[in-house]
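Morning!

This is the sequence you dropped in the shared folder:
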Amino acid sequence: MRALTRRKRLKPGIVAANHESLADLRPGEVATVVHLDFEGQERWRLEDLGLLPGTRVVAELVSPMGDTTAYRIRGSLIALRKEQGQRIYITREEDHHDETDDSSRL
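The structure's back. Tokens below.
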């Protein structure tokens, strides 16, 4: 059974006004998670996948229809629907170079 802890909840309106959402990232862009606007089991699922405030996220792939995007989160590739990404608030990182990514090398 998951232990319930009391967390300081940020007001979604304030967070939304000051930050972009994960759905705004394009492939190759990097960001840090600031706030998850989810509760209950859906929030727990995202936390179990490693998506927590402070986590670094890299947008990797977008589906042909654009509804689903795959993100690199703590070394795993996680696909989220656009609707979910719009409820995850981020701050972009300026340096898009990933030291662990050697795909740019020939």
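Headline: Strands lie at 20-21, 30-36, 56-62, 68-73, 76-81, 88-92.

More detail when I'm at my desk.
O.
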